[in-house]
Amino acid sequence: xxxxxxxxGVSLLMEDLWLRHKVCMKQRQCNVYMVELPPPATxxxxxxxxxxxxxxxxxxxxxxxxxxxxxxxxxxDDERYEMMRKRHAFFCDIVRPYSSLDELAHDKDEWFALxxxxxxxxxxxxxxxxxxxxxxxxxxxxxxxxxxxLTVSTVIWWQNQYCANELMDxxxxxxxxxxxxxxxxxDHP
Length: 189
Hints:
about 190 residues; two-stranded parallel sheet; elongated; alpha+beta; 8 strands
């Protein structure tokens, strides 16, 4: 067990936990902390702390500035839908050479796993599950296209902006049913 005896130590711990969460790193299970804080501050000390906090503010609301990378969910709805369509096109390019769900699953399971995408082979389609952050996800479906090849359905499972799990066609933006997974195809050039 580690002991933290200052507010700065607690602040560093919270920053470490937050950064690990934002970059999807697992928390270390072996880290157990005992926090020993000093007695409450006087009014003058609080004013000084607030002044320091204002001076040392961080761009927490701009993840690209903090991490130098794109946040996968901090987007407008239109940006998020466009990203879904880009993923769809990317997956279509990957599955296009295949004609069998079994063959694709055998060849690409490890490849998808290395990219943080969970591949699940079902009876009628393959699901590609992507965990975007702590609660948000998207699940794409690889299906036969009826012409002897594989493609990606335009219907995905996702957690919508109201935190509800929903099937949606990413091109029409309309809610869909599970039966629509096998019949919703979009041809990319």
